[in-house]
Write the structure tokens for this entry.
Amino acid sequence: MPSIVIIYHSASGTTAQLAEAIFAGAQELATPSIYRISGAEIIAGRFIDEAIWAQLDQADAIIFGSPTYMGGPSAQFKAFADASGERWSQRTWANKIAAGFTIGTLANSDQSSTLLYFSVLASQHGMLWCGLDIPGGYDEQGRNRLGTQLGIAAQSSDGQVNPIDLMTAHYLGKRVAQIALKMSHPSSKDTP
Ligand SMILES: Cc1cc2nc3c(=O)[nH]c(=O)nc-3n(C[C@H](O)[C@H](O)[C@H](O)COP(=O)(O)O)c2cc1C
């Protein structure tokens, strides 16, 4: 089974809810693991945790997550992203699959900028970006209700994530797992 690492920051727990939904979706076809950046492992602005770096280096896919803060990823996530620069020069993450998720309090309050940043980060590493293939407005279950194809752009209200966004997140987890499986076993069939 392919290995997937979900690495994210969450302060008040809504991004964490999305991460858990992605984890559950990925678990159907892969072996996911999940890591929440707490801030304690950031020293002098730099993310330091050798165990998680080793896990990320071994993974077939990495899924990035952060709340949208001031139209971009949180400082805690950025500390992690900046520290990944060593991997950039070594091409350690090249050709791994990448995807991303974020959340904000309004329906459209620059969550796309955070996803765009994640996709640029993935491209800097030579990773293969996996967006959403659910056409917003044409899904029977209403998933991708905010019409963001780049990844999960979710909305929180009073600490709760919109339940449709959680379903969309579950779907993305499974989709990444399916693609990772396909890349490791090219003859494997798609499952709906
Ligand atoms: C400093 C700060 C900046 C924020 N900026 C945005 C923003 O630009 N767009 C948005 O939709 N929500 C913004 N929010 C709201 C958070 O993204 C939202 O509450 C999110 O659900 C928090 O995620 P968490 O529960 O994982 O910490 C901001 C919140 C904080 C604390």
